Amino acid sequence: MLEARDITWTKEHKIILRNIHFHISPGECVGLIGPNGSGKSSLLKILAFLESPTSGQLYFQGQPIPKNVPLAMRRKIAIVFQEALLLNTRVFDNVAIGLKIRHLPKEKIRKQVDYWLEQFGVIHLSQQSARSLSGGEAQRVSLARAFAMEPDVLFLDEPFSALDAPTKEGLRIDLAQVFNSTRTTTVLVSHDFKDIAQLTNRALILLNGQVLAEGSPSELLSNPQKEDVNRFLAHFAS
Question: Which domains does the chain have, with CATH numbers?
Fold first, then answer.
């Protein structure tokens, strides 16, 4: 579905990413994990066409990505960030915005929006102002908006980090159920191994802009890694 070959990214004369090789198959959920400043969000921006690599090549569904990414290709992805970026309007309108831009029939939009609000447990907030939502409710609406677009690839950039522990756990459980039912191809960025263990099939550990380990969450914890990777994973071993 998505592949990065030998990606390097330099910003303001500083190497942020170095020789990154990455691939994700259809229906797979892959995690990018590492401490703050490791380059994981930078890699997500490149994978999601928000930045262009300094060198290397990105492929989407087998096709090389040009520097000027076509709109039709951009419309095949959706992104959810750490902070829910909602418009100052009703919850329903926030979820419907992308579908309206694509000129879908009104009845199809209504069904699509209601379905995803129901999946994320916020259908009762449909007519409420987005500004009145709690952090957890806002992130659920943001996720409903992304899934309503039926993306080929979904990117999640630290979607739980601004939430308190109980809210985070409840959303992880619901999101895992959605993944199981939709098999949406997903890239999840997190600094918390609990997110990776609960939601992903495979994870890459980034340190200092390089991928230093890769495997299933259980493999990463049970198999010896490089010393600096082991130090990072030691925080989650218990």
Answer: 1-76+167-238 (3.40.50.300), 78-150 (no CATH)
